[in-house]
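Handout, page 2. Input:
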Amino acid sequence: MQHNYLVNLKDNKLAVTLLLAFSLISLTEIFAEFNGDKLLIWITKPLILPILIFYYLSLSKKVSAFFVAALLASWVANLLFIQNSFQYIFYGVMFFLLYRILVIYIIVNKVKMPTLIPLLLGSIPFTFLYVIVTMYTYDTLGENVYLFLIQGLFTIFLGGFSLGNYIMVSNKANTILLVSTMFMAFNQFIFLLKLYVEEVNMLQAVAMLLFVLGQFLLTQYMFYTETFSGTKQSII
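Output:
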């Protein structure tokens, strides 16, 4: 499942410029999170995903409207999360759910699993983690635990699908997808850790680092699987 996007990137000055801008602004935003600089966060965070979208559009040979919509939903969610109030966080979670649904739709339509066994086996570690975390955070989350559980169901499915896919075929694209999924899952767990520790800024910076890497790797996955657009990739 090889793709020549690296060659295309080398020959595409616009894409190279966008990638450099994405890296620089992402690092600046992570630095701002670490220092609790709200002004710098508001300046940089809204730019990250739009730049990634333009980077994807500048290189993709078969643009997925669903992937662009997913990144836009994630962008809106992150803007709402900056507010750090329950109402905005609630709406942010809703948009992030939409993001996950779209990503799952994209991946399920790219990969043809022969049976449900790889999915079930891959879901075991993610289910175990979510059960443990829920048990320890139930009292603190209160009614918000339901939002976390809904997010968890989609994360478990996506994680199980990615891990099961990787177990069946350990190629580069499936490895990228699995690592991206794990980064996004750990990002959720860090969100809960912020309820128990004082070094919130440091955790927020780590969460943003995982988020940026997860989104970038997912974009790379899209490049690597463009060959299979319109037909499902069989993993056997």
